[in-house]
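Lab notebook, bench 4. The sequencing result for the construct came back, and we need a structural model before the next group meeting so we can plan mutations. Quick request posted to the team channel:

Model the 3D structure of this chain.
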Amino acid sequence: MTKIAVDGFGGDYAPEQIVEGALQAAEMYGISSILTGDEQRLRALIEGKPGSNLIEIVHAPEIIGMNESPVEAVRRKKDSSLVAAARLVRENQAVGLVSAGSTGATLAASLFVIGRIKGVERPAITTLMPTLKGVCIVADVGANVDCRPSHLVQFAKMASAYAEHVLQIHKPKVGLLNVGEEPGKGNALVKEVYDELAQSSLNFIGNIEGRDISKGHADVVICDGFVGNVVLKFAEGLASSLFDMMKEEFTSTITGSVGAMLLKPSFRRIKKRMDYTEYGGAPLLGTKGVAIVAHGSSNAKAIRNAIRAARDAAENNIVATIEAMMAAETE
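Done. Here's the predicted structure in token form:
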């Protein structure tokens, strides 16, 4: 049975929402999880609940805080809930890791405990963003703020593999995020990356601008982690602000309120498409095991879907696919 290691004490709403998410994943999707953290507290939260028969607990009394140095904390706190979860993946007791704790610490644990795939220079944090045509995957969104051209080329190859094998997108279109569509635009980094991607076997469609992401012009959008993180945070803030503005306008007049009632089902569907909890978390590509970096404010629904995303990535052999791809490049 596929088992996912879940950091029971990572995130703003741990452990209650983490445990509830694991229980929902068990009940709705039949996914077995191994929760790591204070055993007594975790056991009290799952006892007698639907889905608890698919939940295991591994005692890990330490917690890595959001303000701690990620690398130092991972090395020092061997009995933390995060390190214990990563260790389960390394020891093949679980096929994937899910954590809503510190992104830096999750990245460090994935690198130092699970390990990096041979040939991968830098693992990339990716995210799924809604578009008019469905979703696209953006890489990198924060793991690597300073990149060499070879890093972005590998991001493109790994994200394209994820889009094809996990998201089931045939020949995913890869776009390079830039300040203009024309070849030759941009800084020295993206100019060199453009040339390398153009010569690769990927379905590279050239440069795309920021406004093209939401239109769905590309299935995979490539950028360095600094730019990607700005894009991600701006998109999150814009979506939230737009819904707040619509709510304010629709409730300011009687006619607006009536119109809002009639359009409520449509707005609910739009909100669902924009809701990050529907996607669960950000896959970290390039490590020897599946790792999903969940949002720090993840609720039970987000954790449930992060566990599902980890299961899907594992069952579609994304790690083996990237390993084979890297091995072929070094032959």
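The chain has two domains: 1-120+286-316, 121-282.
Will bring this to the meeting.
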